Amino acid sequence: MKTPEETYRRPIGEELSYVCDRLKADEVEILGKALRRGLLEIYKAVVLHDLATGRIDRKEASHRLGSRVVDRSLAGLRVPAAGRPPQRPGPRGMARRRSRRG
Questions:
Q1: What is d(CA 102, CA 98) in angstroms, rounded to the nearest whole number?
Q2: Distances (CA, A) of 4 to 1, 15, 47
Q3: Which helix (H) or strand (E) holds 74?
Q4: pTM higher than 0.85, yes or no?
Q5: Are 56 and 50 in contact (CB under 8 A)?
Q6: DSSP 45-84
Q7: pLDDT, tens digit, for every residue of 79-90?
Q8: Closest CA to 49 of 73, 67, 66, 68
Q9: Distance of alpha carbon 89 from alpha carbon 96, whole angstroms
Q10: DSSP letter assigned to residue 11
Q11: Cβ neighbours of residue 50 closer than 8 Å, sequence gap 6 or more
Q12: Cβ distance 44 to 30 under 8 Å?
């Protein structure tokens, strides 16, 4: 069970005041940036979900988010072949040792 300190949420007005004070910016500017950043995160999540479920293809997702974001997302979804553990990358520039079966 969480203690009261672990469940405490600082009032959003307090956080906004702190950010405005530290950045010497007005509340409207900070709220606009926060809305833009939050909406971008939601947008990326929806586009990647649509890609994963087949509602849009890779080309459309790349057009909306950029190929780098899509490639990273797809790399995270890849599952290794059944029965084999995922292979760890070796040190760069060094060939991997091959096991000898005898």
A1: 13
A2: 10, 19, 37
A3: helix 67-77
A4: no
A5: yes
A6: HHHHHHHHTTSS-HHHHHHHH-HHHHHHHHHHH--PPTTS
A7: 555 555 555 565
A8: 73
A9: 9
A10: -
A11: 56, 61
A12: no
